[in-house]
Amino acid sequence: MQTVTLNNGVKMPIIGFGVYQVPDAEECENAVYEALMAGYRLIDTASGYLNEEAVGRAIKRSGVPREDLFITTKLWVQDASYESAKLAFNKSLKKLQLDYLDLYLIHQPFGDYYGAWRAMEELYHEDKIKAIGVSNFLPDRLMDLIVHNEIVPAVNQVETHPFYHQTESATFMKEQGVQHQSWAPFAEGLNNMFGNEVLISIAAKHSKSVAQVVLRWLVQRGIVVIPKSVKKERIVENFNIFDFELSTEDIEQITALDTRKSLFLSYHDPEVAKMMGNWKVDL
């Protein structure tokens, strides 16, 4: 398994399995189980996905030794405070049937995430979490968090795909020692990604799928990826990206696809902050 080394020395698989938008318990459990059987060792979930219990059952069912796994979950906005973060962490741990987490992320840069970060630093020092990080933090908020706290986030999970490369953010994160992780590597199919002529052409040249080309492009950039699928054949296919390499020409063609903007939402928009602040989930 190819890994990256986080800023505290912890090794993280460069490819994992994500379970966003897989709320059905049985479907989620089976997908995670198939992923573990296919060789994935990083599983990425979140309290807000409402499927931590299914992930926990799949982990137990798989029989894979705990020390071989890298399990990530996330703290939702409504729990972003010192006291609530500790309660939410323990709730997630119980649902996952685990004694510790490998990575715990603040899911959104809203609410009292400073209080939450202090709680997470304490949990880290108590060895209940191997690494702590954030998700969806723009460079200014990430730097502010770094400047005013003891622990530099190990990971920042942000939207990154062929239509939104996050080039400047990637450079900034590397300078600060924060590992870049991609969510929505396939852009959730938007912009007709799987029908894109450039990506289809590159895939044909390497006798690979468009999905494999996209994932290979990301890992060649040193970005951790967490593709999602509920189909066994796709789960296996997405994992098999280490037997080919994209050329400079391939990468230049993909570079030309960058729109330099999100396909989902803008974190600069006050309405997004308002929406996130009022987004309550029955956790």
UniProtKB/TrEMBL annotation:
Coiled coil: none
Domain NADP-dependent oxidoreductase as annotated: residue spans: 16-258
Signal peptide: none
Domain of life: Bacteria
UniProt keywords, alphabetically: NADP, Oxidoreductase
MF GO annotations: oxidoreductase activity
Enzyme Commission number(s) from the entry: 1.1.1.-
Pfam family, one: Aldo_ket_red
Top EC class for this record: oxidoreductase
InterPro entries hit by this protein: AKR, Aldo/ket_reductase_CS, NAD(P)_OxRdtase_dom_sf, NADP_OxRdtase_dom
Similarity section: Belongs to the aldo/keto reductase family.
Protein name per UniProt: Aldo/keto reductase
High-level lineage: Bacteria, Bacillati, Bacillota, Bacilli, Bacillales
